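job 3f2a | input accepted
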Amino acid sequence: MKRSLWLPLMAAAVIAVVLVRATADRDAPQSEKARHIASLVDKAAGLIQEQGRAAAFAEFRKKGTMWFTGDIYIFADDMAGNVLLNPPSPQNEGKNAIDQKDANGKLLQRAMVELLKEKEAGWVDYMWPKPGQTKPSLKWSYVRRVNFDGIPGLVGAGFYPE
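job 3f2a | predicted structure (162 res):
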């Protein structure tokens, strides 16, 4: 690659990483609901490790359980951004969401992946419509690094604080 092209590309990559890191895990929520979500995700990660992906995902899909109730549900992706589990929107499973943006243009999937390159778990905030609505609201998701039968990925859950 020509040196004249290399420098601007590297600068753009560094800026993108800095922006993603600056917005991930910022002012992590401190509430009973946030503690519940973090605990739920930690339990989900444990279930995946104990029972494997197929058995755990079957549990996570059951509506009306601790894993999937109201607007709270467990989701899972691999580190390349492929959606492995999304109980309220199973049509998105198998799709790649690495370039998915929130209402403000934040690359939310990349923010989650970048966070988990540095930490085992943490919070990411983004703007997303509540179920049945079109207007975006603040949403926080807690994600944890896991292995799905040897494949690196993440498991998470989110909530709307308002």
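job 3f2a | The longest helix spans residues 3-23.
job 3f2a | closed
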